[in-house]
Amino acid sequence: MIPRTALPCLLALAALVTALALTVTEGGALPRHGWYLLDVALFALAVLLLRRVPGRQAVPLVLAGSVAVAAVGLLAPPRTSDDAYRYVWDGRVQAAGISPYAHTPDDPALTRLRDPGLFPTGDGCTGWDERRTAAGDCTRINRPAVHTVYPPVAQAWFLALHPFGGGVRGVQAAGALLAVATTGLLLGTGRARWRAALWGWFPGVTVWAVNDAHVDTLGALLTVAGLGCAARGRAVRGGLLLGGAVATKLLPALALPGALSGLLARRPTRGDVLLLGSALGAFALSYLPYVAASGTSVLGYLPGYLREEGYEQGHIDRFGLLRLVLPDRLAPWVAGLVLAVVVVRVLRRGDRERPWEGALLVTGTALLLVAPGYPWYGLLVVALVALDGRWEWLAVPAAGQALYLTGGQGAQQLSYGTALCVVLLVPLLRQRFRGRAVVAEGSRGGGRPEATRV
């Protein structure tokens, strides 16, 4: 029997799952923008109603909702990104005993590894996820003329998935498992268990983690596990997990200052040294087999990717908020300076028992400064929000989604500018409402509240 307190939340969750199913199955080649707005509204409603459900009843509800939210991402092939096809290709290349960094997908030396799933024939090559190689062949692999950009732990993941079908559907199923596993980990790590729904029910999990199957989900899972270990004083295990997360997508490196919170305000401990050393060691060791096979080619397309995406001097197209007030050439330097100040603050004043607090501040600030055009970079922010509870930071991945759908420099500044306003204003409003609550409580108690005395 469904408890009365859980029924409204369950109905809102059912509506959310239905809307998400329509998001990934309706609207032609790409989902209509309106579906995303409906998804966000229903997500917010479902989480608000979840707050009224007692903790013991909330846990199975959060987990069941996470399974449903992840499952609907499997209803269609990737809708908004073709990265999963590169994952399949890299896994297939490795299964053939070849380094993924050694050849580009359109290299004739790898022709024998092609199949219609990745290199379709006879369909005119007109799909949104199809393009021609230099030789005129049709492929679903993005950037077929460049080497892979993914780090070694991601490559190991792609290889591990290859025996389970070797297709994009298998990668999507693995993304669903990672998403639900992250929810389970959050339920066991966070202090307020309802917060796990901020990840498990988040619409981006359906679209980015499952339907598009981005490997960022693996990085988020390893980061959550690593920070949880760090909070419990398990330095080596936490460092290994965080190092593995960085070797999955590089972005989780922004969580490391959180794991070392308060380091500059005290004498470094043995645990600090072990955590940092094990993180660096795990990162370096993960590269060794690939360096032995491919040498400096393990950098893959990373330098070219940074230039293509507008992160390199002379090709600046990011840092939208800073470029409102600064010349292009100064924007990356000022962004680095601002981020360094935030990192120092976390290392001086961060809470060792809540390392995800500093990790969220650094990661969220970095994304606001850089203003990436790919929303799935925000999956790490979503996971950290689920640990920390400051939901206003969800505006950052939402800004990435808005930019991805609309594009353009003006959209970059508008979307991330709105996110910045949300991140700055919500804590002020929260503090104000808490102050009013203290005053009201004091008034009901028959005296002036202690917090208002001079």
Describe this entry's structure for a reader.
By secondary structure, the protein is an all-alpha fold. Helix content is 60%, strand content 1%. It is built from 18 helices and two strands. It has helices at residues 7-25, 33-50, 55-71, 83-95, 152-161, 168-189, 197-200, 203-211, 216-231, 235-249, 256-259, 270-294, 302-308, 331-349, 355-370, 379-388, 395-406, 409-444, and strands spanning 131-132, 138-139. The longest helix has 36 residues, at 409-444. It is globular, with a radius of gyration of 23 Å.
Strand content: under 5%
Strand order of the largest sheet: 1-2
Mean pLDDT: 90
Helical proportion, percent range = 55-70%
| Rounded Rg | 23 Å
Main sheet attributes: strand count, strand direction, barrel closure: 2 strands, antiparallel
Number of helices: 18
Gap between N and C termini: 53 Å
**Uncertain segments of ≥5 residues (pLDDT<50)?**
446-454
**Helix and strand element order:** HHHHEEHHHHHHHHHHHHHH
Structural class by helix and strand composition: mainly alpha
The overall strand count is 2
Shape: globular
